[in-house]
């Protein structure tokens, strides 16, 4: 009887730990179930908003192999995809829209952590509007023979965007042509 | 390869863990008064960061994601780190008692060092490959050690300087950290 | 009731987590770029600190010494994960703004520190007071720093999308230092020095 009592006492720390862990894991699983749907719905909403801002006539889109194909009812409006630029302060996430396989519809800076007041200006229309309507071959800084003017004192941020857009666009177009 | 170099340099200089990311501040202001202990601390933290990155990468990619329980990552990561630090503590105690005592309470405190959990979270959010994760950890740790070492050298000199009473200790340390951060901004153009 | 008020008040100035105890520095410096962020972080810390103090104080007499730290860690990590998921689902803007520092609340020295130093040795009711006091102290410190950084660094103040005010000259030419990382160190160092100089907090 005494031996049984002391084994219980020795085992108690482990028992308590196991109880605590079980309660916690159950709680987490419950909260995860509760929030999972809402979180992915939000992410879908966010994507939809971004895409429809870029393609105002969009009625639906399809996502395959990392490329969004945008439709307005039956007609294909264009494509979109994410490009990631290596900026000054980290990754710059860019949504690139193509109206067809050679023309850029526009770009939207989705997220960036560049220097406030300088590099962050890549998100302003004065910079991003420059991409609208360009032929892919023209996507380069003016100093490199292209049509994009860099933002003063933010050449790194500007060229990160330009490089990412141009390089990823060419990759994606190759991918699209390969699928046809 | 160039991506690994970019990650490494980014972690050490451009997005330095202490000066830019604000990770690992507690030991930064607590330990750094002597160059020797600053470097020991830095090396210990770097080591833990690297091993923790390896362990958490394996767990995340081979257990958490396949079983669709990624939401458990915070709990699992911190438990892994705590266990790791315990093991390292026992190891140091057995092999180099002097080192164990010189670390004192700061050794178990590595568990709560934002830099260690921080790097595992960064690796997860950026979805780094195994090699990138470890390189990032080594870079982060090196950057941490670098700034700790610089800071301790400065603070050693500061002990002899005539600091106004209200600024003595933490306040002036913060101001110096600000100046260091400003100086490090100069590295931003490297990559 | 007197003890409750006393424990609460301690967290505000005497044991202010940021300016006196120098705990939880990592999120304080990183998050203090705007009032919105400061409030978001405070909410997260409030939930976790209150929760962990209550639970740990409640089970404090049953927890054997050996498993103390692992149990505390599991409880705190669970609370943080819950907050992380809830924020992600219901407060997405705050979740994005806090970024990596939301999960990092797990290793926020404030939480584990209070669990060890207070909740494991004091009854639930006092632990609640402690949690509330420390959180308010934390919030005041965060708001102070964020206010300075946001006003000087962006030229105005806007909370939850409502522009409260803009300072004419600063709006066009904000002093970028304050919003950049090293500005955080600058502001907190100066504030600490100021508090010590004026006797609000003690010098070394």
Helix content of chain B: over 70%
Structural class of chain B: mainly alpha
Span between termini of chain C: 33 Å
The average pLDDT value of chain C, as a whole number, equals: 84
Main beta-sheet annotation of chain B: none
Helical run tally of chain B:
8
Q: Given the C-alpha coordinates, what overall shape of chain B results?
A: globular
Q: Could you give a short account of the major beta sheet of chain C?
A: 2 strands, antiparallel
Produce the secondary structure layout.
The complex is a heterotrimer of chains A (180), B (191) and C (204).
Chain A: H1 2-54, E1 60-64, E2 67-72, E3 75-86, E4 91-98, E5 104-111, H2 125-128, H3 155-179
Antiparallel strand pairs in A: 1-2, 2-3, 3-4, 4-5
Chain B: H1 2-14, H2 25-31, H3 35-64, H4 73-95, H5 97-103, H6 114-126, H7 130-158, H8 170-185
Helix pairs in contact in B: 1-7, 3-4, 3-6, 3-7, 4-5, 4-6, 6-7
Chain C: H1 2-12, H2 25-31, H3 35-59, H4 68-90, H5 92-98, H6 109-119, H7 124-154, E1 156-159, E2 162-166, H8 168-172, H9 181-197
Antiparallel strand pairs in C: 1-2
Helix pairs in contact in C: 1-7, 3-4, 3-5, 3-6, 3-7, 4-5, 6-7
Description:
The complex is a heterotrimer of chains A (180), B (191) and C (204). In chain A, strand 1 and strand 2 (67-72) form a beta hairpin. Chain A is 46% helix and 22% strand. Chain A folds into 2 domains: 1-54; 60-179. The mean pLDDT of chain A is 84. With 180 residues, chain A is an alpha+beta fold. By secondary structure, chain B is mainly alpha-helical. Chain B has one domain. Chain B contains 8 helices and no strands. In chain B, helix 1 (2-14) runs parallel beside helix 7. The longest helix of chain B is centred in the first third of the chain and has 30 residues, at 35-64. The radius of gyration of chain B is 17 Å and the shape is globular. The mean pLDDT of chain B is 86. With 204 residues, chain C is mainly alpha-helical. A two-stranded antiparallel sheet of chain C has the order 1-2. Chain C is globular and about 60 Å long. The two termini of chain C are 33 Å apart. The model of chain C has no long low-confidence stretch (mean pLDDT 84). Chains A and C meet through helix 1 of A and helix 4 of C.
Label this structure with key terms.
heterotrimer, B: 191 residues, mainly alpha, C: 9 helices, 2 strands
């Amino acid at each position: 009887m005494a031996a049984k009592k002391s084994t219980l006492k020795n085992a108690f720390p482990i028992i308590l730990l196991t109880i605590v862990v079980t309660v916690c894991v159950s709680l987490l699983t419950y909260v995860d179930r509760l929030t999972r749907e809402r979180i992915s719905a939000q992410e879908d909403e966010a994507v939809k908003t971004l895409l429809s801002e870029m393609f105002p006539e969009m009625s639906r889109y399809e996502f395959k192999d990392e490329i969004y194909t945008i439709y307005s009812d039956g007609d294909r409006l264009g494509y979109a995809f994410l490009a990631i630029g290596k900026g000054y302060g980290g990754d710059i996430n860019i949504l690139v829209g193509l109206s067809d396989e050679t023309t850029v519809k526009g770009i939207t800076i989705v997220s960036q952590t560049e220097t406030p007041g300088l590099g962050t200006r890549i998100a302003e229309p004065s910079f991003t509007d420059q991409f609208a309507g360009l032929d892919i071959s023209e996507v380069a800084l003016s100093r490199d023979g292209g049509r994009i003017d860099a933002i003063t004192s933010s050449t790194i941020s500007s060229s990160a965007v330009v490089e990412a857009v141009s390089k990823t666009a060419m990759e994606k177009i190759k991918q699209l042509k390969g699928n046809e | 390869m160039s991506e690994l170099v970019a990650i490494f340099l980014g972690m050490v200089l451009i997005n330095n863990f202490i000066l830019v990311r604000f990770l690992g501040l507690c030991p930064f202001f607590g330990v750094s008064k002597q160059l020797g202990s600053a470097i020991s601390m830095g090396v210990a933290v770097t080591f833990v960061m690297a091993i923790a990155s390896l362990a958490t990468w394996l767990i995340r990619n081979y257990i958490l994601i396949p079983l669709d329980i990624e939401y458990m990552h915070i709990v699992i990561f911190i438990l892994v780190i705590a266990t790791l630090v315990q093991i390292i503590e026992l190891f140091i105690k057995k092999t180099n008692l002097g080192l164990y005592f010189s670390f004192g309470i700061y050794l178990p405190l590595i568990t709560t060092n934002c830099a260690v959990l921080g790097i595992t979270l960064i690796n997860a959010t950026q979805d780094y490959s195994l090699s990138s994760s470890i390189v990032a950890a080594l870079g982060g740790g090196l950057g941490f050690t670098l700034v700790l070492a610089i800071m301790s050298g400065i603070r050693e000199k500061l002990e002899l300087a005539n600091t106004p009473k209200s600024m003595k200790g933490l306040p002036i340390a913060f101001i110096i950290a600000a100046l260091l951060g400003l100086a490090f901004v100069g590295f931003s153009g490297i990559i | 009731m007197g003890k409750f008020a006393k424990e609460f008040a301690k967290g505000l100035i005497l044991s202010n987590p940021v300016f006196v105890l120098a705990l939880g520095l990592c999120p304080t410096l990183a998050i203090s770029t705007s009032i919105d962020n400061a409030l978001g972080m405070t909410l997260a810390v409030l939930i976790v600190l209150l929760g962990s103090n209550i639970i740990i104080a409640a089970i404090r007499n049953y927890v054997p010494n050996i498993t103390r730290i692992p149990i505390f860690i599991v409880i705190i990590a669970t609370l943080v994960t819950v907050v992380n998921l809830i924020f992600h689902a219901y407060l997405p803007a705050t979740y994005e703004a806090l970024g990596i520092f939301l999960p990092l609340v797990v290793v926020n020295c404030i939480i584990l520190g209070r669990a060890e130093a207070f909740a494991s040795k004091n009854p639930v009711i006092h632990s609640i007071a402690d949690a509330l006091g420390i959180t308010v102290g934390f919030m005041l410190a965060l708001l102070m720093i964020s206010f300075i950084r946001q006003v000087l660094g962006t030229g105005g103040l806007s909370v939850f999308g409502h522009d409260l005010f803009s300072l004419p000259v600063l709006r066009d030419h904000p002093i970028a230092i304050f919003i950049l990382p090293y500005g955080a160190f600058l502001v907190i160092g100066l504030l600490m020095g100021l508090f010590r100089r004026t006797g609000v907090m003690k010098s070394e």
